[in-house]
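Supplementary Methods, section 5.1.

A reviewer requested that the exact input to the structure prediction be made available. We therefore reproduce it here, unchanged from the version used in the analyses.
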Amino acid sequence: MLRLRQAITITQVSTASLVRNKVLYFPFVHEVSVEKSFDDQTQTAKVVLPRNLKYQDQNLYEGDNSLISRGDKIKIESGYHPNLTVDFEGYISKISNNIPVELQCEDGMYLLKQEISPNLSYSNVSLTTLLKDMIGTVTTYTSIEATLGRVRIKQATISKVLNVLRTEFGLYSFFRNGILKVGLPYYAPEKTQTFLFEHDIIENDLMYLKSTDVKIQVKGVLIPLTGDRTEKIYGDTTGDLRTYFQYGGTIAELDRACGVFLENNNYTGYYGSFTTFLEPKMNPGDHAILNSYKMPERNGTYLIKSVHASFGINGGRQKIELERRVL
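The structure derived from this sequence is encoded token-by-token as follows.
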């Protein structure tokens, strides 16, 4: 039988008027949920602590010098005995007044939501230059090469600017292993794992569809080195909308790239999500191989879009949402 282990570590953060340096460790928890998706700029977690929990006979969150405060660091770990690996690292963004106590948590984006970018203005700037001038040494980051053209920033948080880069330029921002990545929504998979329908998948809402039954439209956006951007629509105009960004190049190259993008997203295979055990732990951008003894003709490899992990007194589970088929 799989025996669940879990741990919460909270590290106090000092304020301008108060030195706080305690580290609190809880080898148990009532309930935890962790949300990770490359569609979301901020990865989040919720921790429900046991009712009337105290630490060394001191109340956790009440009073002027409470043990737990907004802005404290938090690390969440879990695994099946003897494993104990990190699910989430970040900061406590909110402490509810409910009973039992709920801690709302955000990853490193929590700090960037409070950090104001310098006022910046460029007639034509690269992504690397913009990030260097905006972020500096606030956090460690990596990025792809891209030319953005005219950019102006005034009185905006770093997080807000990163969100504009996502909506206007298709440049995703997310933290992975403590490093801010700016550029692609996903990179080479860190893990590829096989899930067998008859053994590993507890429940699912997957649908197996033929490509002829799927409606997809693609908005192609060409961002030139100079001049105005060009936007074109491809595919079924009544279908689900996906966006493809191209930096530089010609409209003919955009047509070819969007044709490939449309074909990759309009596939024969599974659509939806499935629930499996807490381990092996998966992340957005990893690959899931879905196999079946009963229907081997439907076997395939899929890119993972999001993972909702939950564990506590009722055990542990992962709900894995598929992005598209890759093999």
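The longest strand covers residues 300-312. These observations are discussed further in the main text.
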